Sequence to fold (521 residues):
Amino acid sequence: MLILECPYCGVKAEESELAAGGEAHLKRFGAGSTDEDFEGYLFARKNPKGVHFERWRHAYGCGKWFLAARCTATLEVFGTYPAQTAEPPADLVAKIKQKRPEWEGYK
Amino acid sequence: MKRYSVFAIAREAMRHHTGWERAWASPEPKANYDVIIIGAGGHGLATAYYLGKNFGITNVAVIEKGWLGGGNTGRNTTIIRSNYLQDPSAAIYDKALKLYENLSQDLNYNVMFSPRGLLMLAQTHHEVRGYLRTVHANNLQGVATEWIEPAKVKEIVPIINIDGPRYPVLGALWQRRGGTARHDAVAWGYARACSDMGMHILQKTEVTGVRQENGAVTGVETSRGFIGTKKLGIVVAGHSGQVAGMAGFRLPLEAVALQALVSEPIKPCMDVVVMANTVHGYMSQSDKGEMVIGGGTDSFNNFTQRGSFHHIEETLRALVETFPMISRLKMLRQWGGIVDMTGDRSPIISKTPLGNCFINCGWGTGGFKAIPGSGWAMAELMARGHAPLAAEFGLDRFREGRFIDESVAAGVAH
Ligand SMILES: Cc1cc2nc3c(=O)[nH]c(=O)nc-3n(C[C@H](O)[C@H](O)[C@H](O)COP(=O)(O)OP(=O)(O)OC[C@H]3O[C@@H](n4cnc5c(N)ncnc54)[C@H](O)[C@@H]3O)c2cc1C
Ligand SMILES: [Zn+2]
Fold:
């Protein structure tokens, strides 16, 4: 059972209280961008077996979107942070690096 | 290869079963092959088989990191049907169904194909309209399906409760030719036939890298060393993104867990396959008597080959209303597989940005039924560079917006 802490209301929510929203920190491409960029934005996903940054919504709680870092191979949750964050916070990245030395990093 | 037959059984019975051969060989890898297929699931093995059978290409290795059939092919609930909505889907799934009809004879291996008939229950008005549309589409495609009324559903499935308060049965889409087959036997049968043609099936051999030169593939790095090849087929389902990454391209796929469970064995009580898409559950009875039940997928990326427990609860809660008698059954086993989901819920059978490298993936929650047709198309694509059945399933459809939208027709995981 997956448990994520909502960074807004502080509730440790169990997954059936949450809605998953897919990969986080996607760079948006719209009108005027190349077909390749637009396709990449819409469809191509990192889908890593390991550290994944992703969007979640506290659907049956405060209703807010937030972001999480989680390992897709073990379901370990490294941390959650507010949705208004353009990149994963440095302290979280450092924490993951320590736990997963072989991790290639966020970029 | 000694053929299996009733005479073989009699002969072996007389000599204490000492004469059975191994079904497939476990050779040492060669330095080079004409074709390497990564992944010895049903789709990879079928691709190899039809490369040999239809195109005479037999200098082939199928490389598998675990044991053959140990991925989704050995974990699925074995539903076979071809009542999809879009024309390209109907073409490839119906080709697969037709090949399944003679597969045991073709492979000289009993895959236990059982065309017992398949019902997709309509439990909301939206579903009624959706299935009526599918019936019309199927009739235009030459795929025989019918719409049947609740009374007829009750006649076909006596254990069903058609007037449940929350999920009444309003009718069903009925495909008589649909059914099930033995999942392991499909993998084993193809493997035996491939081995018989001289192909190498290399189990416990993980591909860890793809080597290329001048934009074309030259071979693969494996846990048993480098192996060269002229052409490469990537057929690894849940790990497609990982292997595509080794080959230098990204895929429009995400991996999630799908789970299934079986009950204790009971006497025969239901001789068709029933799918209930609104409640995300489907059920059939195995030859051993177990009720085989499939559930929904997790909503998040997951490689753990388990699934979340609440999905089981939701599936069973809904199925118990539709099949009250299962409320007394004990569940014996539960397991999960990692399925590769595309945005339009249709597969990818395609060339790739890397020369001489092809990919077959994206079958998601429903590719067991497609194994023979998919292998047929993939073999033709790899041998000739073009295959009519695969033409619409190229990777470029995402850029061009030519989706083959089956999220309505599939609706549920199966
Ligand atoms: C619970 C569940 C129920 C399902 N129910 C149905 C159903 O009722 N009907 C239906 O039609 N479909 C169903 N499906 C879907 C179906 O199982 C799959 O679509 C199909 O089996 C995929 O076959 P495959 O050969 O592509 O993949 P797999 O059988 O998964 O084979 C891929 C193989 O690639 C290997 N591999 C991966 N990475 C590497 C590597 N780096 N090196 C070497 N080998 C590698 C894996 O070990 C694996 O054996 C279900 C799936 C699940 C999980
Ligand atoms: Zn909250």
